[in-house]
Write a structure and sequence with these properties.
Helix 5 crosses helix 6. This protein is an alpha+beta fold and 420 residues long. The chain starts with a strand and ends with a helix. The protein is globular, with a radius of gyration of 25 Å. The chain is built from 13 helices and 16 strands. 24% of the residues lie in helices and 28% in strands. GO terms for molecular function: monoacylglycerol lipase activity. InterPro entries: AB_hydrolase_fold, DUF676_lipase-like, Lipase-like. This is 141_t:CDS:1.
């Protein structure tokens, strides 16, 4: 009698920019063999991940790319951070492609694995579709599985054909979501750590750092460290450094519970405005372009609240990693020509230190120099000692710059380390 791949469990969904889905899948061999007609072990167990986006989208890079990545690891190794664990990884799964990984069942007959599926979409709000299944080689007719009508579904678009499989699903908001800071008791110490991605990046770039911060400080008594992965600039990092910073600033003011914004004088509900922030400390960590965005961000937080933000909230760490502090002027001429022509939007012009028009300068007010009318580049305007950003940076207790000495083509050591 032949053995065929049989689906024991299946789930499908779609992911956009910066989104992921995490599955924890458990298989109990004793439950599977408990049925009288089941006599053969389901060996081997296989997890199958398919990019179910139509093939026609495979070449649509500027509206995608419509790729996903996937990995599977035993949950025990993930929780204990076993450096010798065998992580099975598929870094790129294009439209229509299928990837399979074998799940080794322990001797005790209870398997527990964690599977992550990540979106690789960068340039648009479109979504990439996927399907994940657990398969087993079984002889035909020698097992007991539920029919499609009887299959259980505890989660959207997810079905289990056997009671031997249990699962838990975490979506993007479950992993990156913030706790309710408004319920903070008076006197509680909450340290908000803002993680900002770079050009054409997403919140997924900061997933590892976010999880390590949670792991290190989750059980700590005293100060409560809350990482916030900025996600308001997905597919929009070409809009300009100051525009990206303003989006994050507006979000942070909302998170911190501050009522102050550009329309505060027009509000009539001032008696309902909270006089206490939801956080007591703040740190900014930016990678690549995210470092420059954070410079503008610090200035906006300063100017939008007339300095009240830093008078009530302690600024602790300002950290940049491979950030082009001096711009990207060391690129080859043909790359600079494209950036100057707008190939990377206003952000490319900002990185090339292109002089801004009067309207562009007015748009940046609040982070850069507010009183000058010169058409100077944004990076130069940010460097003025009288600019809100420059004044805000001085309020941070620690200011750290990390730079790659070699092999960083896009952000050289000179610009990342402020080496004049």
């Amino acid at each position: 009698m032949g053995r065929d791949l049989t689906c024991l469990w299946r789930s499908s969904s779609a992911l956009g920019v910066g989104e992921l889905t995490r599955f924890r899948i458990k298989f109990n061999l004793a439950k599977f063999l408990s049925h009288p007609t089941t006599t053969v072990k389901p060996f081997p167990l296989t997890v199958e991940v398919k990019n179910s986006t139509p093939l026609i989208y495979r070449g649509a890079l500027l509206t995608g790319p419509y790729n996903i990545s996937a990995c599977v690891i035993p949950t025990r190794d993930l929780l204990t951070r076993n450096i010798y664990a065998c992580l099975q990884l598929k870094p790129v799964l294009a439209c229509g492609e299928i990837w399979r990984a074998t799940l080794d069942l322990p001797k005790e007959g209870v398997g527990d694995w964690t599977a992550d599926i990540f979106s690789e979409v960068l340039f648009s709000p479109n979504k990439v579709e996927y399907e994940i299944s657990v398969l087993a080689e079984l002889p035909e007719g020698d097992y007991n599985l539920r029919s499609d009508n009887d299959a259980t579904s505890d989660y959207e678009n997810t079905v289990s054909y056997t009671p031997a499989i249990e699962y838990v699903v975490w979506k993007t908001e479950d992993i990156f979501g913030l706790p309710d800071l408004s319920s903070r008791k008076i006197g509680d110490d909450v340290h908000l750590v803002v993680l900002t991605h770079g050009l054409n990046g997403s919140a997924l770039d900061k997933k590892y750092l976010k999880e390590r911060l949670d792991e290190k400080y989750n059980q700590q008594t005293g100060t409560r460290v809350v990482p916030y992965v900025a996600d308001v600039n997905h597919a929009s990092t070409w809009d300009g450094v100051e525009v990206c910073a303003r989006r994050i600033a507006d979000k942070l003011l909302q998170i911190a519970g501050w009522p102050w914004n550009e329309n505060i004088q027009d509000r009539t509900d001032k008696e309902e405005i909270s006089t206490k922030p939801y956080i007591s400390k703040i740190s900014l960590i930016g990678h690549s372009l995210g470092g420059l965005i954070n410079v503008c961000l610090a200035g906006y937080l300063n100017s939008l609240t007339n300095g009240e933000f830093y008078r009530s909230i302690q600024a602790v760490n300002f950290i940049t990693v491979a950030t082009p502090w001096l711009g990207s002027t060391e690129q080859p001429w043909y790359i600079k020509a494209g950036m100057q022509a707008g190939a990377v939007g206003q952000t490319g012009k900002d990185l090339l230190a292109v002089q801004r028009t009067r309207s562009e300068q007015v748009q940046a007010r609040g982070a850069a120099e507010e009183n000058t009318l010169e058409e100077e580049p944004l990076l130069l305007a940010l460097a003025h000692p009288s600019s809100p950003s420059h004044q805000a940076l001085a309020k941070f207790q620690h200011r750290t710059v990390y730079a790659n000495i070699v092999n960083d083509v896009s952000v050289s050591f000179r610009t990342a380390s402020l080496y004049f």
